[in-house]
Amino acid sequence: MERFYITTPIYYVNAKPHLGHAYTTTVADTMARFHTLMGADTYFLTGTDEHGDKIVQAAESNGQTPKEYVDVISKLFQGLLPDMNISNDDFIRTTEPRHVKVVQEILQKVYDAGDIYFGEYGGHYCFGCERFYTEKELVDGLCPDHQTKPEYIAEKNYFFKMSKYKDWLLDHIEKHPDFIRPEQYKNEVVSLLESGELEDLCISRPKSRLTWGIELPFDADYVTYVWFDALINYVAALGYPDGDKFKKYWPAANHLVAKDILKPHAVFWPTMLKAAGIEPYQHLNVHGYWLVEDTKMSKSIGNVIEPLAMKDAYGLDAFRYFLLREMSFGQDSSFSEKALVGRLNADLANDLGNLFNRTLSMTHKYFDGIIPQPDVEEIVDAEIKKVGQGAMKSFQRNYAEFKFSRGLEGLWELVRGLNKYVDATAPWTLYKEKNTARLSTVIYVLLENMRKIAVHLWPVMPGASEQMLEQLGIAFDAQKINLSKELDVWGLLESGSVVAQSSNLFPRVDPPEEASPKKMEKKPKKSEKADRTDAVAAIEFEDFQKLDLRVGTVMEAEKHPEADRLLLVRVDTGDDEPRQVVAGLADFYAPDDLVGKQVVVVVNLKPRKLRKQLSQGMILAVKTKDGMQLLTASGEVPAGSKVS
Ligand code: MSP
Questions:
Q1: CA-CA distance, 64 to 498, in Å (whole number)?
Q2: In which residue ranges of the chain is pLDDT below 50?
Q3: What ligand 1 atom has the least distance to the C-alpha of 260?
Q4: So what's the pLDDT on residue 537?
Q5: Any idea what DSSP says for residue 328?
Q6: From 35, 51, 99, 129, the catalytic residue
Q7: For residue 48, which of 18, 87, 14 has the smallest C-alpha distance?
Q8: What's the 332 CA to ligand 1 centre distance in angstroms?
Q9: pTM
Q10: What residues form DSSP beta bridges with 47?
Q11: Can you list the domains of the chain with their CATH numbers?
């Protein structure tokens, strides 16, 4: 059986979690879920990194002991997991005895093998990064990350002979070209290794300077350097050296980090593993930064995005979809609520939401909600199946390589293709023509493809995917799904079961700057209102926003069977089928003159019956002294375009 082991960095507990942490954890989650559905036995680890100077400083400024402080912040990170629907199997804290034990075992092993020595060291130490910098690495004498002047520290310390493994590491990378991916980061590491001598790594801190750390097993006056301690979490959590989980999952280890911690993961960690006699991990997967207005998020700049606020404002699944769809894995990406709203409305509300809603309501209208048995097939059915296969293949291939954005783009070929399929097959016409044999196939093809889309979206939007399946009458069960088989299997959806009446998983949302129009609106003064007796009282902008006005195309019109002055006008307003409006136009227009005209319709007027005929809206017109003029757009627009 295939296995997949995915890890996130263990996060420092010196600050609250923000969008960057939420992103990495969400990516790990989506991968764990994806591999589960691909049939692999997966294991997903996250946790917190709790030792080191940074933590001591943060605790001090909070008036707490390090232990009190780390307990509180680690809880915040753990608390974020259920809120983001994260399916981790384990959460490791570096202050736990199971971790401390393995760190000391590995230190002892490497020490006994002669790869740790005691020496004098002087270097430029950045407290922010918790590491020494060489002269060459500083930029104008400052830490490249924090732009602060490092402190020169000279002291006796223990060193790991990292330099000894440079050639081995270069060779390993050459033989396993996707050891570090995407490629740009592999190239970065190779040129770093090739550009000069690889230094040895200082792996201890004297207790005279720092006590908050794991004591060296061979010298009680020293604690372990936080990176040598932290990286070991990845094997400690699996029960190294004898645990079953270690044997099962370590060969399939995939680490996930952002580019800020590339060097510790791409250089320190593999050489440490080599020295300890442990096989290297399988892949290091590196992503870029989320930026806000082109600047890295940081507490001091005050541009930190709170993931839970985004989740509360837009819904967790929509937020997860945006994170995965928007960032090209490996590149930096700018976060903006405007872009989020744009994606949500275009991809989720318009494309996916509309497909579900219109198909479910058609299934109810034409088949009382019961999934029909497919019958007469036509060439368009084979064509859409092919689109589906291509879309699923693209999703699966890209997802396996952490290319989420491309994978989702691929899957949306099917979502959009199905919306076109509805327009091309015009189920409402088949219904009118009583062509049930063909209509059954069309509805079945739509529903079966929607099932395929829903299962593929479980890694992306687990909650929405389960709801979509429920709407199709299916109880979600990860064990019963195999994504790779979906490419070839057709017809898993059972005819005869009942679907939901409608679906409103992704309602449209307003762009952020329009969300609070009150601020911009000035109420008219009392005196002005009183003077304008002929005008209708002014309304607030929100009142206007309540109107859903759309431009539609008249498809059919006929006389009302029981009222001479009324017409039954059926208008395409972009919904699953034309909308019938009973309009007082018979004195001014012959039914045939209306067909093909574009009209403005109030579509969210409560439906009502006018002389026994259902009217779902109102057509806007201007009455003049000698006739009637219909309101329309100044040029042709797609049916269903919103008037705003
Ligand atoms: N404790 C170390 C990791 C030890 S792993 C053995 C650490 N912690 S951290 O809290 O600083 O987390 C860094 C990670 O958080 C990044 O590698 C990335 O996964 C995530 N992110 C933090 N800010 C980010 C962005 N602005 N954008 C994307 N991800 C970011 O380093």
A1: 58
A2: 514-535
A3: 17
A4: 62
A5: P
A6: 129
A7: 14
A8: 14
A9: 0.80
A10: 10, 92
A11: 3-287 (3.40.50.620), 336-486 (1.10.730.10), 526-642 (2.40.50.140)
